[in-house]
Specification:
It is a single chain. By secondary structure, this protein is an alpha+beta fold. It is elongated.
Length: about 150
């Protein structure tokens, strides 16, 4: 005959085992659906050590007063002077009308309508920056089709 204390310990052990199996199955399920951050991207420039495109072959080049620094958010970063420094991406063709752009920033605007990211050919096609009200803003993208 099994005592009450042993029965309680067995019930707890079985419960712990069931929870462990459940967590293990959930972990396998999540891993099966996980994707790389680069899946589906047409260009990815982390700008943490260099201007290399991690997806394609369009390398970013520092122009003006722009420098690589070691103390970035992740690894290194690009330091811009707020006037002439920028990263130029050449040889890249946008193949979709949908675009997502992300930037980590550390600094302050150098003046009204200070751009952070913009299209070189037509800055109003793609623009993210500070407005004359010192607020962060984006310009709605309008792409010509045809």
């Amino acid at each position: 005959m099994i005592s009450g204390g042993v029965k309680l310990k067995m019930k707890r052990l079985i419960l712990v085992w069931k929870i462990s199996v459940l967590l293990l199955l959930m972990g396998f399920t999540l891993c099966a659906f996980a994707q790389k951050i680069t899946d589906g991207l047409v260009g990815y420039w982390p700008l943490d050590e260099n201007g290399n495109d991690k997806i394609g072959k369009s390398t970013g080049k520092l122009e003006g007063k722009a420098n690589w620094v070691k103390n970035g958010r992740v690894k290194g970063a690009v330091e811009l002077d707020g006037a002439t420094g920028h990263v130029a991406i050449s040889g890249f063709t946008l193949t979709t009308n949908d675009i997502t752009a992300v930037a980590w920033l550390n600094g302050s605007p150098q003046g009204a309508w200070a751009g952070i990211m913009c299209s070189r050919a037509d800055p109003m096609t793609f623009w993210v920056g500070y407005t004359d009200s010192n607020t962060l803003s984006t310009q709605r993208l309008k792409f010509a089709t045809g």
